[in-house]
Amino acid sequence: MLLPFQEQIISDLLEDPNGGLVVLSSGLSLPSLISSLLLLHSSSPQGTILILSASDSQKHSIHNPNPNSPSDITSDLPPPHRASLYASTGAFFVTSRILTVDLLSSRVPHSSVAGLLILNAHSLSETSPEAFAVRLLRSTNPNCYVRAFSDRPHSMVAGFAKAERIMKCLSVRRLHLWPRFQVFVSGDLERDPPEVVDLRVPMSGPMRGIQRAAIEAMDACLKELRRTNKVDVEDLTVESGLFKSFDDIVRRQLDPIWHTLGRKTKQLVSDLRTLRKIVDYLVRFDAVTYLKYLDSLRVSEGVQSVWIFADSSHKIFELAKKRVYQLVLSDGRKYVGDSKGKAIKRRKVKQDNGVDGESGEGTTVSDGTGDVGMSGSGGVVLEEVLEEAPKWKVLREVLQEIAEERQKINLPGEGESNSKDVGDVGEIVLVACKDACSCMQLEDFITKGPQKVMREEWEKYLLGKSELHGFQKREKKKSQGPKGFGLLNGVVPVGSRENAKISSICMVEHDALMAAASEIRNLTKEEIAVEESSHSHATGIERKKGRGKGGKRKATTKHQNSRSKGDMKGVENNVFSSEKEDQRDQTKQKAISGPEEKLLTGVTKDKSILRKHDQEEGATEYQPQKPLPPVQFYAIDSNQQILDIMKPSVIVVYHPDVAFVREIEVYKAQNPGRSVKVYFLFYEDSMEVQKFEASIRRENSAFESLIRQKSLMMIPVDQDGKCFVSSSSNESQSLVSHNSVTRKAGGRKAAENEMKIIVDMREFMSSLPNVLHQKGMRIIPVTLEVGDYILSPLICVERKSLSDLFQSFASGRLYNQVETMVRYYRIPVLLIEFSQDKSFSFQSVSDIGDDVVPTSIISKLSLLVLHFPRLRLVWSRSLHATAEIFASLKANQDEPDESRAMRVGVPTEDGIVENDVRAENYNTSAVEFLRRLPGVTDSNYRAIMDGCTNLAELALLPVEKLAELMGGQKAAKTLREFLDAKCPTMF
């Protein structure tokens, strides 16, 4: 069902037979608009509709109710089949490359195409393949309409008059703007809004400290970047730095002078991207995963990074560790050592014997709230903190509240109503997260409980640390002295002050992590051994191993027995000396019972989520136990239309997103009779809230800019596509005719043949064929085995962009490509094409050395030219410069032959390559071997080939005959001595 404002958008588009450009706010159900247009077309078909630039998610979201739903036209289909599809009256998804090739090859019946629907119009430009396809189609079918759509208004204002330039390349005259604050849109969405509950969750102390430190580091990087005086200061704000487009803004300003910038400036741009991820992942990852990400940053960034050496960066790493673990002495007091640590309160522990404030020589032990140093008689152990995400508890409470409200409503006939609710799709609570990883973790949290989820992540982290340490130390000898890796029950020994000076806090921390990892690995091995033993001797093993606190347990599944035994072993060994471990172990004993066995064997998905969480409830701090409703998790990044499928009545937005909020508003407006309740979970005073509010402000400012541009926009009269000039070459010819000499036939110029260029099919991914066509050249798309562009029977061009050039050198593909061009064409050309908005240089002149360096691109190019002397290098500043270069190279040259270009490099049935003289008459491998013999040069190897049949005959020729063929006695004597020399042997 369409809303009134959506119907108005469609009616405005249908008013103009030429089409138009529609820009609307994100989340206003763009796929439903496309589906409605396809439905209208199917009801009264007047031709074929081709849909361009559609992403995979958009293809899945566009559903046509008619049986003739849009299908894909791919390159796998044979050309005759594609031609028949173009002639039908249906709707098809097609890529711009395939459509352009088919238009140039005259496979598309132009009169049968009714129009084009172009999605993601914000990515178009004058040289894009979509603009090329529109120009080709409009030149032969002026009545074809073009309707373009975009739901990213902030991308439409990036650059000078971008909306106007996109309209020009699409040949449309009308711009339709539909922001969220438009009267029709706001009226439809606010007529019956959903019930909204805004929950502000306070962040923990370490989270606030990490966010503050990351913002300080980002602000410091911005200040350093402002000092360069090479970027616009207005765009360099922390608010704009929260979005991915910030990197594009900075790089777009710095690209023209990128080769002149120093290493520090380039690194600052990269550091801003890293800091944005640090702030973003803080509210998305759990504490252990976040620490793992920071550890990877410490390794990958290394000494190259600038932000990692700032004072605020140390706070980020230290606070991230405090969320996961802390070092304590074996007697329960905080370990500080001789570092500059801050005073930390002593943690409460259960001890059998009291520990006073005794301290050994050179140590500090505090009985109060002061610093605690290294004790001469104690060891250092890890105390797990495993801070849970604050949103987890709030999400649990929200789900319990939803279940209570439904239970009150369905109180009479409770059993029947509950079973009905579980089966009803609309009764499922939808929880929207940013990505699929967050969805899986929240599902584990609901199923297993928060403590078990954090415990599993913690064990993975420790085992990963242990594996990395083992990989690094595999080739080194083991030290003679004991290090304490699992040998002393996971306790790292701490000695006197002398030993403490040698071992820093980082080493003690690393040793403690390795000890904990070793203990967990031992527990895992014991669990596997117990499982294998219990499979054959279940009863005997139960009696033998059922000692200690677990001796009176009930019989359960093998996995549960081995798991609880492993936990008891860990407590006895004192790997993690904390009260939380004791509580977790006791509650696990209570939780293991018969009903859990039923849970593992199989119930419905919704019931299993409820039962699993109830079994783990005693291990968490959430009490009392309460039932939960069925939950469905949804990843916002997947861009699926799940609201229309699930039709939920309660939605929990775990990670707020502007586009998804708009989708909820549209869903509620389309279902006015359904009650929809939305819970928003925000971290209070966090960058998450600021990013959400900044995205709304950015969208509104983008629409305001587009409205001003629309009021001042000057559109030519012939921009409707009906006055399209089919031959662009007339423009260049007219300039010559005006300046021609009037004595020669009154200024009349003889008709010139149209320039033809044979282009490889794969080159239509780039914009160069589009520019060549604009210059009036005829483009012939074929499949080439050698080269990318054939300018004449003698000239073959291999085009390389900068990124492709580096990759081709690294893989060795460029060497083979140049070798084949040199073999088949007299003038092989390597075209190195730069981007127009980037620097026309590989690197700074000061960075180019005098010696040949294998890692230098200049050295690689020099070696390539030395190896292939006939190769010509052509440097191009931009696409338009390349078109001019091609025109100059084709001057006084014959036009290329299409059939011959297709046969070059393709073997025949007999294995002989067409038009390859060397392949027909000579053995290429033997020729290469001959040219490497001593005395054989480029001037005499052809005479040697003419004078003897093969290498065996060459080896038997006398010196006089060799001298006659090689043109000298010295060269012949050198070759004969080489051929007659004895090979050295070992005996």
UniProtKB/TrEMBL annotation:
Name of encoding gene: UVH1
Keyword DNA damage recorded: yes
Classification of source organism: Eukaryota, Viridiplantae, Streptophyta, Embryophyta, Tracheophyta
Record flagged with keyword rRNA-binding: no
Keywords assigned: DNA damage, DNA repair, DNA-binding, Endonuclease, Hydrolase, Nuclease, Nucleus
Cellular component GO terms held in the UniProt record: nucleotide-excision repair factor 1 complex
Annotated stretches, region: Disordered: 60-79, 347-370, 528-627
Biological process terms in GO annotation: double-strand break repair via homologous recombination; nucleotide-excision repair involved in interstrand cross-link repair; resolution of meiotic recombination intermediates
A Pfam family assignment: ERCC4
CDD domains registered for this protein in UniProt: XPF_nuclease_XPF_euk
Primary localization: nucleus
Biased composition (Polar residues): 63-74
GO MF entries: damaged DNA binding; single-stranded DNA binding; single-stranded DNA endodeoxyribonuclease activity
ERCC4 domain sequence ranges: 756-836
Biased composition (Basic residues): 544-562
Organism from which the protein derives: Acorus calamus
The protein's name in its UniProt record: DNA repair endonuclease UVH1
Family the UniProt entry places it in: Belongs to the XPF family.
Gene3D superfamilies, sorted: 3.40.50.10130, 5' to 3' exonuclease, C-terminal subdomain
InterPro entries in alphabetical order: ERCC4_domain, Restrct_endonuc-II-like, RuvA_2-like, XPF_nuclease
Compartments in which it is found: Nucleus
Feature: compositional bias, Basic and acidic residues: 528-543, 578-588, 595-616
